[in-house]
Amino acid sequence: MTTITTRTVEYPADGLTMIGHLALPVGADRRPAVLLGPEGMGLSDVERRRADALAELGYAALAFDLHGGRYLSDPEEMLARCLPLLADPDRMRGIGHAALDVLRTEPRTDPDRIAAVGYGTGGAIALELGRDGVSLRAIGTVNALTTGRPGETARIRCPVWAGVGSEDPIMPPAQRNAFTAEMQAAGVDWRLVVYGGALHAFHHPPVGHPVVPGVGYHPRHARRAWRDVVDLLAECLPVTEDLEAWPR
Questions:
Q1: CA 205 to CA 226: how far, in whole Å?
Q2: Which of 33, 95, 134, 172 has the fewest beta carbons under 10 Å from its own?
Q3: Contact (Cβ atoms closer than 8 angstroms) between residue 6 and residue 23
Q4: PANTHER family this protein is in (predicted)?
């Protein structure tokens, strides 16, 4: 694995001062980069470790913030912020663009080789960047089968991979069907993986606070989803390092 360095980065977005986590391979050359978005609770050590794992694979990786440096462990507070956000594509795009600008202006980043990967709300933001016509090499999402405004999905110019648990009550079959129909109608190169028996946020290790119903960790599928994300990057944004790391 490549030796890495990490640092926090502050930047304005959505009327807040966001605090992201930037992980870089040691060196001076420009690297392909990954913008990494968290679940609705916000940036935590889970996403920081994922960014570090991506840096170990050779990517410049920025785990971006959603809530101005806060982690919303109270489900009601989280929903009160995230539901209006998810209903407002322009706000989501603003948060995504602000983080993307930080990553693009990092001297180690190759600005022409960036992918966006996100979980839950962070995945919805990744999709909205694609619908806004941002030039990305790939978009990967877990638990984020959101649909967009009519016609805008045709602006996505890269492959889209999506993962969801079969028993996710927040992303039920009707939502899956609406998402895939939108991708297909827009001519997007899309894939959907349904992980059998998994709930919402199946990729996220257990947390020590209440969660909304229908959320649960599935360690086997969490590892499989990570491998699927890494495979997407290997296909669309390759580096020469071993692409089998798992952020434990």
A1: 13
A2: 172
A3: yes
A4: DIENELACTONE HYDROLASE DOMAIN-CONTAINING PROTEIN, DIENELACTONE HYDROLASE DOMAIN-CONTAINING PROTEIN-RELATED
Note the pLDDT of residue 19.
98
pLDDT at 132: 98
Chain centre to alpha carbon of residue 94: 15
Instruction: Please report the pLDDT score of residue 212 as a whole number.
Output: 87
State if pTM tops 0.90: yes
**Could you please report the per-residue DSSP string of the chain?**
---EEEEEEEEEETTEEEEEEEEEESSSS-EEEEEEE--TT---HHHHHHHHHHHHTT-EEEE--SSTT----SHHHHHHHHHHHHT-HHHHHHHHHHHHHHHHHSTTEEEEEEEEEEETHHHHHHHHHHHTT---S-EEEES-----STTGGGG--S-EEEEEETT-SSS-HHHHHHHHHHHHHTT--EEEEEETT--BTTTSPP-SS---TTB---HHHHHHHHHHHHHHHHHHS--SS-------
Q: Divide the 248 residues of the chain into consecutive groups of 10 and give the mean pLDDT of each group.
A: 93 98 96 98 98 98 98 96 98 98 98 98 98 98 96 98 97 97 98 98 93 94 98 94 52
